[in-house]
Amino acid sequence: MAEMQNTGLEAEAGVARLEALSHFYGARVALQDINLKVPAGCMVGLIGPDGVGKSTLLGLVAGARKLQQGKLQVLGGDMASSRFRKEVSPRIAYMPQGLGGNLYHTLTVDENIGFFADLFGLTGKARTEQVDRLLDATGLLDFRDRPAGKLSGGMKQKLGLCCALIHNPELLILDEPTTGVDPLSRQRFWDLIDTIRRQQPSMSVLVATAYMEEAERYDWLVAMDAGSILATGSPAELKQKTGTETLDDAFIALLPEDRQEFVSGGGEVTSSTKGDASWDDAPAIEAHNLTLRFGDFTAVKNVSFTIPKGEIFGFLGSNGCGKTTTMKMLTGLLTPSEGEVSLFGSPLDARDLATRQRVGYMSQSFSLYSELTVRQNLKLHARLFHLPAEAIEARVSELTEQFGLAEVMEQFAGDLPLGVRQRLSLAVAVVHSPEVLILDEPTSGVDPGARNRFWALLLKLSREDGVTIFISTHFMNEGERCDRISLMHAGEVLACDTPAALVRDAEADSLEAAFMKTLEAVDKEPQSRGDGKVISADNSSAKRDSAFSPRRLLAYARRESRELLRDPIRMAFAFIGSALLMMILGYGITLDVEDLSFAVLDQDQSPESQDYITAVSGSRYFVEQPPISTMVELEQRMVSGELSLALSFPPGFGKDLKSGRPTEIAVWIDGAMPFRGETILGYIQGLHLSYFEDLILRTYGTAPTLSLVSIKTRYRYNQEFRSLDAMVPAVIPILLIFIPAILMALGIVREKELGSITNLYVTPVTRLEFLLGKQLPYIGFSMVSYASLVLLAIFLFDVPIKGSLLTLTVSALLFVTVTTGLGQVISAFASTQIAALAATAIITILPTVQFSGLTEPVSALEGFTAIIGEFWPATWFLEISRGVFTKGLTFGDLQHAFLILAAFIPVLTFLSVVLLRKQGR
Amino acid sequence: MESLETIWNLGVKELRSVWHDKVLLIFVLLAFTLIVYTAGSAGSMELHNAPVAVVDEDQTVLSGRVINSLQQPWFLKPDLVSLSQIDEMLDQGTHTFALVIPEGFERDVRSGKVSSLQLDIDATRMTQAFIGASYIEQIITTEVAEYLETGSSASTLQVELITRVSFNPNLEGTWFGGVMELITEITLISIILTGAALIREREHGTVEHLMVMPVRPFEIMAAKVWANGLVVMLAATLSITLVIQEFLGVPVRGSVLLFLTGALIHLFSTTAIGILIGTVARTMPQFGLLLILTILPLQLLSGGITPRESMPELVQNIMLVAPTTHFVSMAQAILYRGAGLDVVWPQMLALAAIGTVVFSASLALFRRHLAV
Asked: The whole model's pTM is what?
């Protein structure tokens, strides 16, 4: 229905319509009063420097971010309505920023695609065909069984695209899809998009990019700066409007004047030739036959080079060819299997701090402190490199200026857009003015203006300060600026020379062409085996939404189980750990108080007092220590905790006793631990009574009638009063609450931290399906753990189950559902794994250990703690566990505990659903 | 000198990270305030509100007096039930004790015959069962003796046993629970903060970044130890002065300063344990599991929950290498018994020794880990 109404409107409304749209992150404005109509059926590009709101806009259109202000219509409906979003989500595909941001890295290519197919309800033959066609077209067919995390950057992006295209969307949203991808893969990626668009002309594509050369291919552009739109139109229109030749210049011309200089980066930097002064010095970097093997995989094979001082040495090559690995060997982060590295003429010693002071390194992935502000990050690194305190301020402002960070100084590094982060990383890498700079794709994701500024800086460093620079890049125009470049592929250096010589040798007209030619010679694009069609025109096989889909739920469950099963260490820890804990706790916690130390201050030293002492030390509860001689000593030994009990006989005790005069024995009990004090008090009173009964019997031959009432006590369920019988059934609930709750809480927060939570935001999966789907594997996992605990209890601890095993198992199933549900609720608050871990530990340990009846019954609690006890699931499972193990109870006897346990489940699930957000901010 | 500067700077960074994670901060604060308060106000394992069921087949003045003598705070008001209900009540766990007063109880007592009452106890409730049984026996004996001869004392023995409970005369659980919970939180939070901070650095690649700077593994570790230790120290100080002394009203006999000094030495080992776990674990879920594996024995077997004497010899000996064992015994000595440095120095020495060993072991492992 909705579709039919919409098709007519779409033509004039375009694929998306934004009215007075604004978006804020805290006090910061990301988008300011945007009005835009995005035309349908074409390729629309968002262009502009880093951090101008491109990603925010795409996120909003995709429904991944929550609309804050203004109106947004996508595919003819209002994105503020959650009902419409749910309806429209199968028609939109969204690929977030970053390499493989929405993929699952331990899952294989096939499993990743399968997961998305399940989410969109694809089944049967249509599904198999669709998957095969996509894999075939993207050349991933041969890598079906490879985990996504082990794919190269370009392949990850292609897989991301496959996952996005699986449901044949009407609107494809790509956020900087080729950032960090090598030129060859990049070209193949865009060819693929072109093919798809030819076959599917009605599909609209919305792309954000910082690369103007890519934007030339698009139909329609939106130029953005500082959260606002500068201009819209086709590339030709924009160029015409500004009277410029290239899109780059057109964009600059569109900017307000005060921004032009900054964004352009001061125009193209041309490489001046290197000075030749330094050849006589020892080379800055020397590598001989570097080889590195991981297991039987050779990442780098026999790489050698010599880089003189002051040279800019470029490292070019496809993704995953060993560039990063080589660089890490140069910094000492990796130790080569063979070969050696010399820096400044002496062999590299990874431990030598003085060398590190001379080298600056920037890793490929962002590795600064995201929870510190830009200023704090800069200052911290300046201090760590021991810059003089008075120079730090000046250095920081100098870098701020050079890298254009002034506006973001007080922002947290984690909140910065990709390109700005890279600039910060660079600034940090040069903070200590190193003599050698090792930069791993420093400009990946950085806008052209910033790259220009950066290169100007590099040239200045190299030419004026004689800094040696070792840089890897995917940009050919950057490669051209290097003094020499090395082309790498599959761990080997293919060629190494000046850019001009390389172009000449390859008989090409540009470095890009030379690069492609050299690489294509060794890296053939896989030939398509199918009919070349990427996606089927018919998407009727996709079942359109129902309110609750077991298939989507199972998709999440299957995926989570796979991730769990691929982490054998986690599994082993969980199983061995719970068995180990059960042994420790089962044997360790006993409430039988025995072997208490006592000593005597005997001021009488008579046979009578000695006889009494013998009786006390003869009992199994007390162990005698050396006698006490003074009251002061008694005091001291009690204070130190050495004695739990002290007895004192007054002078004349024996005489008084014999002559029938009343006398007394004084007793001091250590009350520091109330429970133990209480027990000692009970013991000593009992001993006293029975000693004198016995004494009278021995003296007079008749037992005295001390009381007319005798109490016959019967200890039920546990005649021998074995602690083990009471503790073992109690340890099972303890372990079944901590481990499942923690694993579950981390399972969800992890998705938040790693970014795959986006799939919840933009696919038709509902919160309930997501939560239950993720919960199922942990329930299964906990039940296996339960089984092993029960077996241990029966066979190792010899604590038999007197009641029904079925009752116990059913209640355990209810219980682990509750405890994993508890983990879900906690994960809803926490956004970091540390917080989730701390929260779960803090919340669960106290009530379980103290208020659930482990050592004392819940009925003995008072006030607030009694309420906690009553509303804590462990209380009820503990009752069932003890009831079944020791009392032989069955379901009928424990009905109320079952009902209460079961009641927790819907409450917790409801809470999690309410607390979990279906959209990001 | 440079090394100290690095340690200082990295530590300040650590503090900023903790400060940045507001959810974490709130939970740390909760742990040291609300949770400690809750544990303290719960009362501990002494006999308290034990539920008793009574079958009164005698229905006389004496049986009434016996029933009434079972009073709060030790026992809940006894529920009168019929004989046939006893099994069900014990099975369901609603009552720990069931007392049966037979017909003719008063008559027998009056005529000087020994009458016997039956007391059924749910032995799965270990502490309450044991302590409660001896209480009931004593109370009833006293009651019967007083009934026979009003004003007579309970003891008909020639030798009177004068008992004095030192340090906590009324054996109040509040005094105990709060402090023991504080110890647990000190241990738990310091391990989580340090270990998880290390895992986060590893997951975010920042450790690698540190290793290309003039920073030694020792400095990274020392910074984490002092910064996270400081956070816990601040929270612990707040907790003992405000929550335990002020709100819970626990009279602390010894020096709070001495206790905090001990806590500081204790933190040295627990933060090092955090680093150790953080080095062994690859991911946060693994860290979580290892944490549970470590913290439960540390807490439950330290002597803070159940008395050490009653643990098997082997467990007692193994637990001597756990810092919590010494910390618990030191805290009890200082806070309850008013012990001074002259008494607790062996524990402090043990804590320092354990800390040094654990720290060195973690450092060695951490170094090896970074060298890869």
From this structure: 0.83
